[in-house]
Amino acid sequence: VSGESLMAGKVSPRVDDPVLLEGPTLGSLTDRISALALRERAFIWWWLALLPTGFLTLVLIGSIIWLFYAGVGIWGIDWPVMWGFAIINYVWWIGIASGGTFISALFYLMRTEWRTSINRIAESMTLFAAACAGIFPVLHLGRPWLFYWLFPYPNTMGYWPQWRSPLLWDFYAILTYVTSSILFWYLGLIPDMASLRDRAATRGKQIVYGVLAFGFRGTGRQWRHWHATYAILAAIMAPLVCSVHSIVGLDFAGAATVGWHSTQFPPFFIFGAFLSGFAMVIVLILPLRRLLRLEQFITGRHIDVLGRLMATSSLALTYSYMMDAFTTWYGADAAERTMFVARTTGMYWYIYWGTILLNVALPQLMWVRRLRMNQMIMLLVSVLVVVGMWMERYEIVVTSLHRTRLPSAWGNYHGSWFDWSTLLGTVGFFFFGMLLIVRLVPVISMSEMRAMLLKKQS
Amino acid sequence: MSGQWRCIEQLERDPAFLDRAAREFPMLAEALASERAGTPGRRQVLRLFGAALAMGGLAACTSGKPSGVLIPAVRIPPGLVPGQPDHYATAHVHAGYALGTVVTHQMDRPIKVEGNPNHPSSLGATDPFAQAEVLSFYDPAREAQVMNRGQPSDRQHLLTAVADARAHMAADKGAGFRLLTGTVTSPTLAAQIDRLLQTWPAARWHQWEPFSRDNALKGAQIAYGSAIDVVPHLDAADVILGIDSDLIEGVPGWVRFARDLTSRRNPTRTPHMSRIYAIEPAPTLLGSIADHRFVAGPAALHETVMAITAAILHGGSTASAPPWVQPLVDDLKAAHGRAFIHAGPDQPAELHALIHAMNEALGGRGSTYDLIAPVAHRAEAQSDSLAALVADTQAGRVTTLLIIDSNPVFTAPGFAEALQCVPRSVAITGEADETAQACTWSAPMTHAWESWADARGHDGTATILQPQALPLYGGIAPAEAVALFTDPFPSPVLALVQATWKPSFGGDFASAWRSALAAGVVSNTASAKSDAKLRPEAARATPATPPSGMRISFRPDPSLSDGRYASNPWLQELPRPFTKLVWDNPLLIPPALADRLKLRNGDLVELSVNGRRMTMPVWMQPGQAADTLVAWCGNGRRVAGLHAGFDLYPLTGQNATATVNKAHGTYRLASTIHHNLLFPDISDVVKHATLQTFQTRPNFAKEVERPEIYHRHPPGPAQWAMSVDLNSCIGCNACVIACQAENNIPTVGKEQVEMEREMQWLRIDRYYEGTPEQPTTFFQPMLCMHCEKAPCELVCPVGATVHDSEGLNVMVYNRCIGTRFCSNNCPYKVRRFNFYDYGGDQQRPAVSWNPDVTVRGRGVMEKCTYCLQRIAAARITADRENRHVGPQEVRTACQAACPTQAFTFGDQSNPDSDVVKRKQSPLDYELLEDQHTHPRTTYEALVRNPNPKIAETRA
Fold first, then answer.
1. Alpha-carbon span B866 to B861, nearest angstrom
2. What are the start-end ranges of the H helices in B581-656?
């Protein structure tokens, strides 16, 4: 592969690509990747992308300010559908976040080679998706300024949390998850920060990256400690991503509500999380590969494996959908059946069948090698899967609640303008954050890439 | 010299002043005249001026508006204990008739209405209107200002105008004077009116209620030769036939009748369950609890009733009538002396006469009903009365028209135009309504809680209404207003009322007066039984055959009556019994018409009645006859009335044949039942069976006992529980408003109800079973079940909803952060959430809230507490007296208000309590028992008593 064709971005991925195309040496690899963060001026496309995402971030901030001023009545939630977009978006974002953790932590423990060049993007995705997810539990509250009452802190009110509520554990789970995601991401970044410090041309950048590098100098001791800590964190993160999703599933399964009260929810939610997480990773790396000219590092091998992962998790999710229908049919609860019929044929039928189409049918295309290697098709499928996963959460939250046990309390639900502005605002904020990462931080873990290269050379 | 100050000597010489003084203050004029004549009167003039000043000062003291901030008195008035409620008896007067009430006061301000157990129309219960009176009393939009031709004026100028009118009346013996009131039962007001008519013999008095009972009155005149009132004793009736009847929703005394009727509806408490038949073109509350409900449009109803009449009165055949008529007739005849037939006000006078004849023939007089002289003073056919007034007005024969507490400009089409011919019209009204605006003079009327009055109940029992508070806006009492037209210085209203009762109270007036006030009724004032003899004409009366075609029936809005309560947000937002609509009054159409015109709820139609057209939305009402439209009047007020709904009065008063055509567009209607479904079987929610089934399987409502893993019992000294008897619930909504008043529940407005965010803690669920043409209706009051294993408590992360030691599921508002998980997890969906700051948005003065109940803020969940504040009050009393709370000591607001005693509340750990007895009923069942929530609120299953001979008429 010539450097010229690489620069022109004309390299098509192939299934039998190695994880790293021929060419880079230890030095040139570090040069190329650190140059992306250290370059003087940003790309034009970067500025063009920053505008709408920045605007949407402002929309998010505006929506939140108005929400705090006016109350959750500005949303479409009602009686009996007391949960709406806030919970849907929360589950959606936390699901997306988990995909990144899965790739970076689980596959790290399994010493998988292809993980190395995409784990930084995946972890950054986790970071911002978790941030988007993390704001919703607070926004969701009727009195958000009292969210800290979920902490068991000593106080004069004699107040103590109610430990039987899944919501409380959910709060701790997400708090743990967000905290450890940040730590994991940052820990992996430390050696790269040191590289950037060493290569920075200006004093300002040297100081900033120097501070962020925490005095990492690449001594053997530091490397040993860094590797140990990273492995321990990865070992914590891998089960954590399952526990946080189980807890999210238990938020629903722990209730006696029609449509939620099901023992399969924890694995069901984990499957869904992986599907949306893998899809979102694909949504991010395909354009970045082209725009940042990373074809050398993100090869057909990566695309191939991600496509197959997406198809596999879709099969797992399909199993859960089938079980959901089966237990409803097999169980004796008339209310469950009424709700399920309403879910599949009622006013929200398009949500259910859209979910099936986008999460079950569409990802199966990824079993076909030719389609997997077509970046446009893969991007399209991934975007639609991400949308489909949002619809799945809509189906779980809204259609379950709109057919309650007592027919007198049956209701409808529609998202309001503010529901949509908040959702789109978080989407904007997510990509806004990703753009900042792309600009300021090495998008590929240089230290790990060098380690991989060394291993290959030896 | 400045024109502002003039000495008395100057005034003496001013003829204009002397003239005005003569009219306003005759005594002052006399004094001035004597001064002029040289007699020593100057001192007297000064004294009179001084007195006027002093009285002006007094007046200024007493007409204070309630301020937004509540400051307790620095020196507590004697006898007043802060936090300790007081109770004063009075009555809620609706369309003239009194419903005895007791008003609860906190720190001297009325905050809650309860029924008066001593009053025969109430027996301790109320209707929704009486419950909502507290909000109307504090309504900041009440009329507060004397107005003259649209300009602010004052009482003195009004009195001057009245004096001028008196002068004219003196000249022409009152020939140009007309008085218009509603139905009058008040002996004091009646005495004043009589005195007015004696003083000015040429004056005329007219009465007008938009939904009068003229047909019943005329029917009585045919049957007995004079007006007569029927007082049913439904507890003695085995078989009841209602023909388009408003027996338990509109007729004066219905609260009492509902109690009597339902006392025979629960087979576990009555040895002989009554049987109710209803023949009606549109759903009524009587029809909803009837054992047989036959839908019949006007023509079919006429034919059927004539067949029944023929069979009962003349032994005729029912061969041509529907097959169920003969068994019905047999049933009525078999229950000789224990049967009662009632027809609604829409039915023609001749039919009412026939019913009198049938009731006599069935031997019910004296047992299932009594006849008494009319309670209303000088009962007359009011539509004729108003027509006469309009005719006189248009002919220019009316120079002064006094309208008291009536709103004919809104309720009588054509009246507004006629009113313009009257040079001097005076409206004394509670709110600045359409009539007040159209009259040359308008003045605020004192609220029934602000002045002395009296009124009679449905059986004639009189109540003396005592003031509950100082007038908020000043005002004139009705009796005072009438008196002013005969006497420049009428006695105070108190003296007028006392004068009425002095003769009958006899020797010890003071103690008799006090006991009448304390009891809320004047003893032995019920009307004596009439011994009127049925005239043979009654049985021969022949109602005209109704013309064919689509007929429109104008009815008072179930929540607003004829519109007089349209300014009350509680009542506007009170879901109507069948449709559960709020804030609106669409045209109610039968399902068949909806099918034919492809109409859906909320679609606009063009309604045409006698050439008058109106575009309005429709709402499909199951169980309405295919040729019947129902239009609720009362909403759509042009002034006041909260700008809701449609004014249908312009279409009333004429031939009621209507045409409906689909128009373009839709209109958004808000209903609290979002899915109007018909269920093939709703018995998993509302358990029900026939009497036969109950007799063979008394435990039909019980489910199989399921094994329990663990069941903890709260340790408290009392265990609160409730039982709701579905056999009693008639869906009248009194409990809903009682709960709203007691628990400071906000209204949210039409838009928020549309968004499914209503706040009432207690709702009455309505279910239909069967077909849209012939549905069976079920009402089920739904409130917090206080589950022993409450799903809501488990899921709250901050422990804002917890169980107390007495088995209550309590909501800690301060602790709630609004995750709303509790509502999602509540199988009964009885939790309400403050999506906005509804409580803070209420347009009511701070003094009107119940101080014992927190007003919830934004973002907080709330729900029924079993009236925890009442339990707490009883607990405090019991603790002070070192005893347990008694078995029947606590009564929840819904329980107290319920006309039919459907609710029973009490301590289920105390074997003496009523609730234990009710829960031992074989009908007792837990709603959604399979959820293992162990609700403390249980229901008694519904049993109906259909006639076995009428096969499958309830399709």
1. 16
2. 591-596
Q: Does this complex have an ipTM over 0.90?
A: yes
pLDDT recorded at residue B9: 45
pLDDT of residue A150 exceeding 60, the answer is yes
- The CA distance from B97 to B113, in Å, is 17
pLDDT at A235 over 70: yes
Look at A79 and B823 and tell me if their CB atoms are within 8 Å: yes
Q: Could B767 and A408 be called an inter-chain contact, meaning their C-beta atoms sit closer than 8 Å?
A: yes
CA B259 → CA A307, B126, B127, B706, B730, distances in Å? 73, 11, 12, 37, 10
Question: How far off is chain B from A190, nearest CA to CA, in Å?
Answer: 38
Portion 183-212 of A in contact with B at CB < 8 A: none
CB contact under 8 A, A142 and B860: yes
What confidence score (pLDDT) does residue B3 get?
37
Q: What six digits make up the tokens of B322?
A: 């529907």
* Residue A37: band (very low, low, confident or very high) from pLDDT cuts 50, 70, 90: confident
Interface size between A and B, measured as CB pairs under 8 A: 155
Interface contact B683, partner A, CB < 8 A: no
Q: Provide the β-strand partners of residue B924.
A: B940
Give the span between the Cα atoms of B266 and B272, in whole angstroms.
Answer: 9
**What's residue A21's pLDDT?**
73
Residue A369 to chain B, least CA–CA distance (Å): 45
pLDDT at A165: 92
Q: Which among A164, A256, A411 has CB closest to B756?
A: A411
Q: How far is B796 from chain A (nearest CA, A)?
A: 6
**Chain B residues 919-948 within an 8 A CB cutoff of chain A:** 927-928, 931
Please, which residues 51-80 of chain A have a Cβ atom closer than 8 Å to chain B? 70-73, 76-80
Q: Is B49 on the interface with A (CB under 8 A)?
A: no
Closest CB to B835 among A72, A150, A256:
A72
Out of B677, B765, B791, the one facing A256 most closely (by C-beta) is B791
The values of phi and psi at residue A78, to 5°, are -150, -170
Could you read off the pLDDT of B684-721 as tens digits, one per residue?
899 999 999 999 999 888 877 777 777 778 888 899 99
Q: What is the pLDDT of residues B799-856, one digit of tens each?
A: 999 999 999 999 999 999 999 999 999 999 999 999 999 999 998 888 899 999 999 9
Query: What type of residue sits at position A433?
Result: G
- The answer to whether the Cβ–Cβ distance between B756 and A160 falls below 8 Å is no
Instruction: Give the whole-angstrom CA distance, residue B186 versus residue B482.
Output: 13
Report whether B342 contacts B245 (CB < 8 A): yes
In sequence order, what are the residues at sequence separation of 6 or more whose Cβ sits closer than 8 angstroms to the Cβ of residue A22? A1
Mark yes or no for CB contact A71/B858 under 8 Å.
yes
Model pLDDT, residue B60: 37
Strand order in the sheet with B292-295: B292-295, B275-280, B239-243, B339-343
Q: How far apart are CA A206 and CA A195, in angstroms?
A: 10
Residue B666 bridge partners (DSSP): B603
Which residue matches tokens 């009392």? B718
Residues of chain B with pLDDT under 50: 1-11, 36, 38-41, 45, 49-70, 953-955
CB contact under 8 A, A166 and B823: no
Nearest CA in chain B to A167: B797
* Contact check, Cβ <8 Å, A79/B815: no
CA B897 – CA B741 distance, rounded (Å): 11
A220 touching B (Cβ < 8 Å): no
Q: How far is CA A370 from CA A304, A365, A367, A377, in A?
A: 10, 10, 9, 10
Backbone phi, psi, residue B528, to 5°: -70, 155
Query: According to the model, what pLDDT value does residue B46 have?
Result: 52
pTM of the model: 0.89
